[in-house]
Amino acid sequence: QVQLVESGGGLVQAGGSLRLSCAASGRTFSNYFMGWFRQAPGKEREFVAAIRWTGDTFYEDSVKGRFTISRDNAKKMLYLQMNSLKPEDTAVYYCAAAGMATTRLQDYNNWGQGTQVTVSS
Fold first, then answer.
1. What's the rounded Cα separation, in Å, for the pair 87 and 68?
2. pLDDT on residue 31
3. Which of 32, 51, 78, 99 is in Cβ range 3.0-4.6 Å of 22 for a Cys bridge?
4. What is the mean pLDDT of residues 3-25?
5. How far apart are the first and last CA of the chain?
6. For residue 102, is pLDDT > 80?
7. Beta strand segments in the chain, E
8. How far apart are CA 100 and CA 83, in angstroms?
9. The predicted structure's pLDDT at residue 19
């Protein structure tokens, strides 16, 4: 089991940037496939980005070219750099861990509590 805690959310104007962080604790962080998801009010939680322990990355189409996911295995940290933010990016952002390479929500077994990102127009 890995424990995850997100931080870095906040209020930003459209076109601005935020960097989210996820601190992980546990003995096998490098063995997990890590992802970022988001959930807007009244909507289902959706995939945003994911990363293998080797550094290979995967993105939802709407964030390609704007968001960058990265991880520091030595520090047990996961990051999401968000640039050119849009109002439709407004959501609670969650980091999560899965035991396999996947972008499917149901395959993730460990979740943080989320951090709010609000983008004003």
1. 18
2. 75
3. 78
4. 97
5. 39
6. yes
7. 3-7, 10-13, 18-25, 33-39, 46-51, 57-59, 67-72, 77-82, 91-98, 108-111, 115-120
8. 28
9. 98
